[in-house]
Amino acid sequence: MNTDKEKISVLQCWSVSNEFGCGFAALLIRQWNTGKREMRMTQLGQSITRLDARAKVTGEAAFPGDINLPGQLWMKVLFARRPHARIKRLDATKAQAAPGVVRVFTARDVPVNEFGLGSKDAPVLVADEARWVGEKIALVVAETEKQAEHARDLIAVEYEDLPPLTDPRDAMKPGAPQVHPAYAGNVMKHIPIRKGDVAQGFAQADVIIEGEYHTPYQEHAYLQPEAGVAYIDDEGRVTVVVGGQWVHEDQEQIAHALALPLDQVRVIYPATGGAFGGREDMSVQIILALAAYKLNRPVKIIWSREESIIGHHKRHPMWIKHKLGATRDGKLVAAEAQLVSDAGPYMYTSPKVLGNAAFGATGPYQVPHVKVDAYAVTTHNIVSGAFRGFGGPQAHFAAETQMNKLAEKLGMDPVELRLKNVLREGSLLSTQTPLPGGPVSLPQVVQKCADEFGWGKRSAVSGQRSAVGFGFACALKNIGFSFGYPENATATVELRGGATIEKVIVHHAAAEVGQGTHTALAQMAASTLGVPIEKIEMIVSDTAQTDNAGSVSASRMTYIGGNAIKGACELALTKWHEEERPARATYKYLAPQTTQLDPATGKSKPNLAYGYVAEAVEVEVDTETGFVRVARVTCADDVGKAINPRLIEGQIEGAVVQAQGWTIQENFQTREGRVLTPNLSTYLIPGILDVPEQVDSVILEYPDSDGPWGARGMAEMPFIPLAPAIIAAVHNATGVWFDEFPLTPWRVLEKIKRAK
To answer: Which class for 267: exposed (0-12), middle (13-18), buried (19 or more C-beta within 10 A)?
Structure first.
């Protein structure tokens, strides 16, 4: 591979492949083994084989860590590994003189030493003050990985350790030390929501439930840690081949830090080893680009699992106070909530996560009187950011547990209580606006979930040392970016052939991180054009060949990207019928506009569309060991239109297991800002023996009025209500409520003993 053209052809092949997320390998194997399909018209609703199935089950798919280029160098990062410290002296003399070392980079080598999604408030490399353990202090580039690692350990840094501020509730107190100069009083963002008069509402209540809840960190634990390679291509562009979720945002942040025009930076995603929101923010992208740009040689990096765990953001921990009032017949009248989220020292996506949490604090219910105050607070803990559900799981855990406690106090069935209160067509949200996007199917989703689970026929069974319990919860999830963001995506389609369409080339920037996005988009293109999917060629995730499609996050790509694909195909088809050969068309989809939250009341049209989900679970609790096992889950999702039902089932099953891990097993521990669980032997995620014996995926289709063929995004939905459903089931089995988790055996056993 001596020429850049050869490199690009190989990288293009990789970028057209795709990548892995939380579906099961068995699903891919099953799809591959279906064999070669006959050429036939592709219809929406068919569970066609994933485009990347064969490459993944055979090992042909190349991930960032698999890619090697001639003459490449290796990079290692010196992390601060201190939650709060001042750098008094940095001496890289010995490192620079070590065998094989080409260069050591420090903060003074970065042209514009800042980055960030919401705000460029974080340094690429720290020059003076480290604010969390994952701060990057220096980079070593050497001929081999071992040489770079050896030289990194020779860098001498003299730190002055400073007291870390690690409890966001303390950080909000008057007089607390300032974590970041940009955020006065350590409050990065405050979102108030006001609807009606809560004092009047609680005066009308016959029953009031009050609770205080805490939700923990969660590590993304994607299969491949951060990795990539950067080089200068034949056109002089800094080219970064890496895993991510938004190639054009990566391109923008790299260009900003290097003080380069956008067209001098190219970002390509090959197969990506999972994401779940964990690759939205910068990790290795800028530092790889910096080294390749300065040295004019390819540079590669692969983080260890420990480096990945300390080096990228986590799900926001939250502390939630919640007060809920209802009449004796179960009608909700008032809700009041305060949410405090730990953002860490930098913004990342905290304001967006906080907005979703504030919105979700009242759950998927009609509540006439609402008062919510949500805060994102800076600390010296590990940075928090996007993770599947984006604030929804934390808020719904409190709201749904409150509903289950209310049902118990009223002596009412939890499903009956929900059906009395769920949002319906025309219902006003806490933001004083109705839900958009076609039928509001929450009543149908809740009822269908209960029916499919056999909720009315359940019966508790207790043995000598085990108890069986059942729980229920539901949720709504926004689709797309929120709160005034001009949501859009662009696609280009080219039709080639003579009398008939023989080949379709689709240019689309969507990232494939395991959810099957590229397969669904190809399926939509084939269906629009009336051709077999074998005629579709996808050119994807490459800033040099695709226009901006936005992030693969917020359950948005099927909806937003699908509309862009549909529009481009329709324009190209019109040209084709007008005898234009080849026919090429570009279409930019502009979604219905949302509005920003009013700074005093939160009044807004916060989201352009929603999906609806309900889950019922059965658990077994060993009352002698405290071990909780999820035996059965029924998950009902309104997806609008199932483009590929098997992909949806994979998302449901993966989300259920991931949410179960957060609720029961995953115990991310820190002490004074230092990570105590820096590897997968101390941070335990679910294994195959932890997966529920039965996960029933119930797919409902109530078309969204603006979604492509009515489709709603759904990848995050199945995660959101599982934690409160499990908590309710454990309570049903043991009589004990848990207001925090994970439900580790010692925590469960201790509380059961105390209750007795």
So the answer is: buried
How many domains does the chain fold into?
3
CA distance linking residue 425 with residue 613, whole number of Å: 16
- Rounded Cα distance between 17 and 241, Å, is 14
Q: Identify whether 367 is part of a domain.
A: yes
Q: Do residues 343 and 294 share a domain?
A: no
Last residue of one domain, picked from the residues 574, 590, 606:
590
3-state SS, residue 496: strand
pLDDT along the chain (756 residues), means of 10: 37 32 41 47 89 94 96 98 98 98 98 96 98 98 98 98 98 97 98 98 98 98 97 98 98 98 98 96 98 98 98 98 98 98 98 97 98 98 98 98 98 98 96 91 98 89 83 97 95 96 98 96 97 97 98 96 98 97 98 96 96 98 96 98 97 98 98 97 95 97 96 96 98 97 97 91
Determine the structural domain holding residue 97 and report its residue range: 65-162+225-311
Residues 409 and 300 in one domain: no
DSSP three-state, residue 130: strand
The tokens for 295 are 């040295």
Question: Do both 656 and 513 map to the same domain?
Answer: no
The Cα angle at residue 354 between residues 352 and 359, in degrees rounded to 5: 100
Measured distance between the N- and C-terminal CA atoms of the chain, rounded to whole angstroms? 70
Preceding omega of 582 cis (within 30 degrees of 0): yes
On whether both 430 and 553 belong to a single domain, the answer is no
Q: Is the CB of residue 521 less than 8 Å from the CB of residue 564?
A: no
Residue 181's contacts (CB-CB under 8 Å, 6 or more residues apart) are none
The strand pairing partners of 586, in sequence order, are 492
167 domain-assigned: no
Domain assignment present for residue 182? The answer is: no
Domain assignment present for residue 188? The answer is no
CATH number of the domain enclosing 452 = 3.30.365.10
Geometric angle at alpha carbon 74, from 71 and 75, rounded to 5°: 145
Q: What is the pLDDT of residue 484?
A: 94
The H or E element spanning position 332 is strand 332-342
Q: How far is 635 from 474, CA to CA, in rounded Å? A: 9
Could you tell me if 370 and 198 are in contact, meaning their C-beta atoms sit under 8 angstroms apart? yes
List C-alpha distances in Å: 568 to 136, 499, 504, 561, 588: 43, 21, 12, 11, 8
Q: What is the pLDDT of residue 39?
A: 58
pLDDT at 34: 42
Q: Choose the final residue of a domain: 559, 590, 621.
A: 590
Amino acid 438: pLDDT: 79
Contacts of 256 (CB under 8 A, 6+ apart): 112, 114, 115, 120
pLDDT at 462: 66
Rounded Cα distance between 527 and 566, Å, is: 9
